[in-house]
Amino acid sequence: MGTPKIPGSLRSPRARHENIYEYDASLEGDGLAIGIVMSRFNQDIGEGLLSACTAELKQLGVADRNIAIASVPGALEIPLTLQTMARSGRFDALVALGAVIRGETYHFEIVSNDSCRALMEVQLSSGVPIANGILTCEDDDQALARMQPKGADCARAAVEMARLLRALREVS
To answer: Would you call 107 a catalytic residue per the annotation?
Structure first.
């Protein structure tokens, strides 16, 4: 099989294993294209997630012109929109944003479980990483408390995964 060709900028030697390399996490957003899909259901939460996500993407160096935002009615519409974006070949990573807040019916579980499952299916079938920022909360207060940190976390996850997958593809 031989030794894989790993570009020096994409590896770091492990202290106890000089010949084993680990891909460094990179949060360098310059040159990346990121697609975001936001649910309008619980819109105030979605807008808070979006604001935090786009602010963090810009902080990481993603140019405004490389960020595309689509809004959809609810969390169950997010996966199809992400799938269409992934198939376009325009995006290095995608972000799903929304909030599902528990109500008095079983609908919460259906939307939470099915949207998450569908995001994973899109990610695995397309090879485009998706940061899952669909909050699943007991009440509005939980969602409000989580929206800013989760939006920023999703931006970082999208950039890191886009860089990692680029690095892995360069080795192949």
So the answer is: yes
Q: Name the residue type at position 10.
A: L
DSSP element (H, E) containing 170: helix 140-171
Beta carbons of 85 and 93 less than 8 angstroms apart: no
Helix and strand counts by DSSP (H, E) for the chain = 4, 6
Q: Which amino acid is at 21?
A: Y
Q: Report the candidate in 144, 95, 151 with the shortest Cα–Cα distance to residue 122.
A: 95
pLDDT, tens digit (0-9, with 9 covering 90-100), for 85-127: 999 999 999 999 999 999 888 899 999 999 999 999 999 999 9
Decide: pTM greater than 0.85.
yes
Site of tokens 């996850």 = 157
CB burial readout 17-44, b (16+ within 10 A) else e: eeeeeeeeebeebeebbbbbbbbebbee
The active-site residue out of 107, 109, 124, 138 is 107
